[in-house]
Design goal:
about 450 residues; alpha+beta; Uridine Diphospho-n-acetylenolpyruvylglucosamine Reductase, domain 2; Uridine Diphospho-n-acetylenolpyruvylglucosamine Reductase, domain 3; Alpha-Beta Plaits; 4 domains; 5-stranded antiparallel sheet; 16 strands; FAD-bd_PCMH
């Protein structure tokens, strides 16, 4: 039986694509977390901004919650629709709207993939520098919703730094034009930055103006094998001092094990406990000499046990696959994921405490570490043992996450570095934000979403 509210939506928007097939509901109702059973009311796939506004006004009038949806590659349950919500999918709004060669900006719709943005920028001889492994499937709207980071934050910063302007449909259906591409604008609150990282709780991003920059210089990629966790920050400091780093990523032997199980060749004859893949500018003999000097210094200090320098683009891609292939290689194990951050200066003390905590609390579990050490972001993946019930596994992990959140609080860190809070991290918001901050956020949300329909239950409860 058709929900009468959907009949009214169809009548008001006869051209709207509206899906209610069970397969479509399951497909669009979940993200990569796979911990909740999708149960949306329907899937709306608008093709233009006016339709988005009309959908939101219908939802407000009939008390229907909305879950904005892009590529659904999120890892915190931010795009899950498990309680009869309307999924507002933006996949059809996926075009480049314009390029400004003077301002060096690219106007795009929110459903465009990150890979397509990279390609569009390259057509104009420029670059959009935010980058990570899900580039082919994640959407710009989702990137904005979570302030996505990735592998080049060390050099270029998060998504926030590259948003010149946004158009946002609020929870009352109003269209706000935020930022407008101005380099300087001291005319009050910058609502654009409120929308970035808001996880769809303040409205729906329907257009973004992205800043572009010069293409990166020629680079070199190097893989280093480290004998212990303790030397990781010494290696980072040595390379950052001597080289112009574009990226500095670390992963463990367990991460490498799972990637190689998917195919590929081990980079070294011996197995080492920790690895670093780093990319840096390479524009001449001086850079090459600096690279060799940095490597030799780290070896002489006992911080590096082995290393390989990419000989061409193909090998560089192979070395990067060892890092970027981790998430895909772990997917079949249904890992419990932690995505945490601390100041880079606090990283050594936090790493030591966190490693002790997880070693003590997860004696039987395979724990895979990797992350963006150069910007203080670590990803901790706990793999479910074969035969263990899923609910029991998540319950054990959540108890440990509570301890980890307290550790982060002591070190001034965040329980969510770049994946958002969603449903997964919501219980631990207290460790990152004060009670006063959370109340201010609730107040902002009430203003922009007066009917409480925008992605309710995510980030924090009303």
């Amino acid at each position: 039986m058709t929900d009468p509210r959907l009949d009214l939506l169809r009548q008001s928007l006869p051209g709207l694509r509206l899906e209610t097939d069970p397969a479509e509901l399951e497909h669009y109702g979940r993200d990569w977390t796979r911990r909740w059973t999708p149960a949306p009311l329907a899937i709306a796939l608008p093709g233009e901004v006016g339709e988005v506004q009309a959908i939101v006004r219908w939802a407000a009038a009939h008390g229907v919650a909305i879950v904005p949806s892009g590529g659904r590659t999120g890892l915190s349950g931010g795009a899950v629709a498990a309680n009869g919500e309307l999924v507002l999918s933006l996949v059809r709004m996926n075009r480049v709207l314009g390029f400004d060669p003077v301002d060096r900006t690219l106007a795009v719709q929110p459903g465009i993939t990150l890979q397509a943005v990279h390609e569009a920028a390259a057509e104009h001889g420029l670059a959009y520098p935010v980058d990570f492994a899900a580039r082919g499937s994640c959407s710009i709207g989702g990137n904005i919703a979570t302030n996505a980071g990735g592998i080049r934050v060390l050099r270029h910063g998060n998504t926030r730094e590259w948003i010149a302007g946004l158009k946002l449909v609020t929870g009352s259906g109003e269209l706000l034009d935020l930022g407008r591409g101005l380099v300087k604008n001291s005319s009050g609150y910058d609502l654009r930055h409120l929308a970035v990282g808001s996880e769809g709780t303040l409205g729906v991003v329907v257009e973004a103006t992205l800043k572009l920059t010069d293409p990166p210089p020629p680079t070199q990629v190097m893989l280093l094998a480290l004998p212990s966790f303790d030397v990781l920050m010494q290696v980072f400091a040595a390379l950052r001092t001597r080289l112009r780093l574009e990226a500095f990523e670390f992963f463990t032997d367990r991460a490498l094990h799972h990637v190689l199980a998917h195919g590929g060749q081990a980079p070294f004859a011996d197995v080492h406990p920790y690895y670093v893949v780093t990319e840096f500018a390479m524009q001449g003999e001086a850079d090459e000499a600096a690279m060799l000097a940095a490597f030799e210094h780290c070896v002489a200090q006992g911080w590096v046990g082995d290393g390989v320098i990419a000989q061409g683009d193909a090998q560089a891609a192979q070395l990067w696959r060892l890092r970027e292939g981790i998430t895909e290689s772990l997917a079949r194990h249904a890992p419990y994921k932690n995505d945490v951050s601390v100041r880079v200066s606090a990283m050594p003390a936090f790493l030591a405490e966190a490693q002790d905590l997880l070693g003590r609390e997860y004696p039987r579990f395979d724990v895979v570490w990797f992350g963006h050490v150069g910007d203080g972001n670590l990803h901790i993946n706990v793999l479910r043992p074969e035969g263990m019930d899923g609910a029991e596994f998540v319950g054990q992990c959540e108890q440990v996450t509570k301890l980890l959140a307290a550790t982060l609080q002591r070190h001034g860190g965040s329980i969510s570095a770049e994946h958002g809070m969603g449903l997964v991290k919501k219980p631990y918001l207290w460790s990152t934000r004060s009670a006063a901050e959370i109340e201010v956020m609730r107040g902002i949300r009430r203003v922009l979403d007066p009917h409480g329909i925008m992605n309710p239950g995510k980030l924090f409860d009303p």
